[in-house]
Amino acid sequence: MSSSVRQVSSLYKIGRWVALAGGLSYGYVHARTLRKEADVKRLDKEYARKVALIEEAKKKYAESKASPSTGAESFNFEDPNFDFDKWAKHLETKFN
């Protein structure tokens, strides 16, 4: 029995190395692209969360400012029909 070793073409060997290098390059570039997209999505989500928190804070601030002023009255001292007694009662209830 004679064993003969089959010779592999140089073109075939080079082709395998080129395919390996191409696959590694593609994998690196694709992973980098996916990482960038994930970072952009994360930043967008964080920005949207901050905007939602700001909107919620604005609503609560508006509610806190609106609540005490609903019972309060505004008085115009230059109005000819100004009611001094009403203003005095308002001050009395405010400071007591």
Automatic annotation (TrEMBL):
> Span of the secretion signal?
none
Its keywords, alphabetically, are: ATP synthesis, CF(0), Hydrogen ion transport, Ion transport, Membrane, Mitochondrion, Mitochondrion inner membrane, Transport
The listed locations are: Mitochondrion inner membrane
User: Which terms in the GO cellular component ontology are assigned?
Assistant: mitochondrial inner membrane; proton-transporting ATP synthase complex
Q: What is its main location?
A: mitochondrion
- GO MF annotations for this entry? proton transmembrane transporter activity
Q: Which GO terms describe its biological process?
A: proton motive force-driven ATP synthesis
Say which domain of life the source belongs to: Eukaryota
List the InterPro entries: ATP_synth_F0_esu_mt
Q: Which family does it belong to?
A: Belongs to the ATPase e subunit family.
Task: Say what the protein does.
Answer: Subunit e, of the mitochondrial membrane ATP synthase complex (F(1)F(0) ATP synthase or Complex V) that produces ATP from ADP in the presence of a proton gradient across the membrane which is generated by electron transport complexes of the respiratory chain. ATP synthase complex consist of a soluble F(1) head domain - the catalytic core - and a membrane F(1) domain - the membrane proton channel. These two domains are linked by a central stalk rotating inside the F(1) region and a stationary peripheral stalk.
Q: How does it assemble?
A: F-type ATPases have 2 components, CF(1) - the catalytic core - and CF(0) - the membrane proton channel. CF(1) and CF(0) have multiple subunits.
The name under which this protein is listed is ATP synthase F(0) complex subunit e, mitochondrial
Q: What organism does the record attribute this protein to? A: Coemansia erecta
